[in-house]
């Protein structure tokens, strides 16, 4: 967001999102960055605890790529919003819309019949004002006023929103900037997936957290990377991944995207459980996709139809073409049963079911947080740029209007910069508590699925390891710092967590293909 310095956002986020240990401290260490080319970046490492595996945090810093921004870049978008009726203006910006037109009305009244009406008595004020309002001069005056007002607003507001408009600008001036930002983030995700330590894959799960414009960037990066990894699996993987049917059933129970009716939280929770189960099923088949969660905070994606495509109709067209992934995904285009009530997110390929390239949110859970504006219809107090995403991006998103953190969440506009500023407020409604719940850092401690255990047993046999009793021939697969477990191989595998057995499956698959 804005012009933040490297590590500023990461430090604030770790202090807010990392749950404290039993002593009440958030312990993390600063280590050299091992996956990016940045000399400014660092890797923060939180040691393992009883209920959380070792966790590492990385920051994608892109502010240095967004240079040459001008507040005037905001004017075309701002002008479009001003000329819309209030019910079509994003809810968080209606207060600004109302304030602006109120000031214009007061100014017109002052010149027309008010205290300024006698300043230019011989120029025909009514005709002069009419011409002025309809001319390019009026646009220049508003641009000048906007630039002047911007000098009194916090830089985090003007910089953040100008960055959003610039990133989504389709002009040649912004193309190279957008390309480099997207490319850098995709490369970071690819390196996290490929990173190894002592010959084994280093990470078993990735959570992407993004604020403001960062959510647009993260959405683009996740969507692009999924399109290159969705069909990967080991050579002997067959059938549908475990959890696919559960996901499609849970998705069918969600209301259609965009319907103006509250979705039952229980339905969303069931869908999110099915997403995690399907993610585990993909890993069991040998797919290296690691991203389980996407957490957005204070993002203007809630009026993406006005920024991405300028109109809701064009936005819907891109959704139907699967260019803009939703949660749940749209039906797979090649479905042979268009009249079926059950959604289908996969297609047959080489003896198995493959999730299609526009369905990253079949496995990536999406949580969205924002400080809602008050009053409800013409809100001015709160975060102007955050809002609900379900109407545009799907009812599978867990939208959370943050109700805690007291009066500070009501600071007009500036609340946009406060999502990681409450590390010590862990009350039920606090944004910090919601962040901790969304990260679910203890989720990797879930027991493995039956399909993972069976697949790991099969791979052990194919790699020449004995699978009746534990013996030293495959003790090398276990962390040498830990005691060698006793019992049957199946018992050993069941004692693992899902992330640990996924790592074992990765290692065994690599031995077969290496």
Structure description:
There is one protein chain. This protein has 514 residues and is α/β, with parallel strands linked by helices. Helices cover 40% and strands 9% of the residues. It has 17 helices and eleven strands. It has a four-stranded parallel β-sheet with strand order 6-7-10-11, with helices on both faces. Strands 1-2-3 form a three-stranded antiparallel β-sheet, with no helix packed on it. A two-stranded antiparallel sheet has the order 4-5. Helix 9 runs antiparallel to helix 10 (265-284) and helix 10 runs parallel beside helix 15. It is globular. It starts with 7 loop residues before the first helix and ends with a helix. The model is unreliable at 133-138 and 147-157 (pLDDT under 50).
Radius of gyration: 26 Å
Largest sheet report:
4 strands, parallel
Strand content: 5-15%
Helix content: 40-55%
What is the mean predicted local confidence, pLDDT? 78
The best one-word shape is globular
What is the number of strand segments? 11
Counting copies of identical and different chains, the oligomeric state is single chain
Spell out the helices and strands N to C.
HEEEHHHHHHEEEHHHEHHEEEHEHHHH
Q: What strand line-up does the widest sheet have?
A: 6-7-10-11
End-to-end span in angstroms?
A: 42 Å
Q: Uncertain segments of ≥5 residues (pLDDT<50)?
A: 133-138, 147-157
Number of helices: 17
Instruction: Specify the structural class.
Output: alpha/beta
């Amino acid at each position: 967001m804005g012009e933040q310095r490297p590590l500023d956002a990461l430090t604030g986020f770790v202090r807010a999102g990392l749950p404290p240990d039993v002593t009440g401290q958030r312990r993390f260490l600063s280590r050299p960055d091992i996956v990016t080319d940045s000399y400014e970046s660092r890797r923060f490492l939180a040691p393992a605890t009883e209920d959380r595996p070792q966790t590492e945090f990385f920051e994608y810093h892109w502010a240095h790529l967004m240079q040459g921004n001008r507040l005037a870049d905001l004017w075309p978008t701002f002008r479009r919003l001003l000329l819309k009726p209030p019910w079509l203006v994003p809810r968080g910006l209606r207060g600004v819309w109302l304030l602006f037109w109120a000031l214009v009305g007061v100014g017109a009244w002052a010149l027309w019949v008010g205290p300024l009406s006698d300043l230019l008595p011989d120029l025909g004020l009514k005709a002069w004002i009419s011409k002025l309002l309809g001319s390019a001069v009026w646009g220049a005056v508003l641009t000048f006023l906007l630039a002047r007002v911007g000098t009194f607003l916090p830089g985090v507001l003007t910089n953040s929103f100008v960055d959003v408009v610039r990133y989504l600008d389709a002009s040649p001036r912004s193309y190279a900037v957008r390309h480099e930002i997207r490319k850098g983030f995709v490369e970071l995700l690819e390196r996290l997936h490929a990173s190894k330590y002592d010959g084994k894959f280093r990470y078993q799960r990735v959570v992407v957290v993004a604020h403001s414009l960062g959510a647009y960037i993260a959405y683009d990066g996740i969507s692009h990377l999924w399109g290159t990894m969705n069909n990967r699996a080991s050579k002997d993987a067959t059938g549908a991944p475990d959890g696919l049917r559960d996901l499609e059933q849970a998705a069918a129970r969600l209301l259609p995207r965009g319907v103006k009716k509250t979705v039952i939280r229980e339905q969303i929770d069931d869908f999110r459980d099915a997403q995690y189960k399907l993610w585990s099923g993909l890993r069991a088949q040998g797919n290296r996709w690691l991203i389980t969660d996407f957490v957005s905070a204070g993002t203007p994606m809630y009026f993406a139809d006005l920024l991405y495509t300028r109109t809701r109709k064009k936005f819907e067209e891109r959704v139907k073409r699967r260019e803009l992934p939703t949660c749940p995904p749209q039906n797979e285009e090649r479905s042979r049963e268009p009249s079926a009530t059950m959604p289908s997110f996969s297609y047959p390929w080489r003896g198995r079911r493959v999730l299609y390239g526009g369905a990253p949110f079949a496995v990536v859970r999406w949580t969205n947080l924002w400080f809602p504006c008050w009053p409800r219809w013409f809100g001015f107090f709160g975060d102007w740029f955050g809002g609900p995403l379900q109407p545009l991006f799907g009812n599978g998103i867990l939208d959370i209007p943050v109700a805690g953190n007291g009066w500070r969440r009501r600071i007009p506009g500036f609340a946009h910069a406060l999502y990681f500023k409450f590390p010590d407020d862990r009350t039920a409604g606090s944004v910090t508590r919601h962040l901790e719940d969304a990260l679910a850092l203890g989720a990797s401690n879930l027991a493995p699925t039956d399909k993972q255990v069976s697949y790991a047993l099969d791979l052990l046999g194919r790699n020449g390891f004995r699978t009746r009793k534990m013996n030293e021939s495959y003790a090398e697969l276990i962390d040498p710092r830990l005691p060698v477990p006793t019992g049957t191989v199946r018992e050993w595998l069941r004692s693992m967590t899902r992330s640990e057995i996924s790592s074992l499956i990765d290692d065994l698959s690599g031995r077969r293909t290496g």
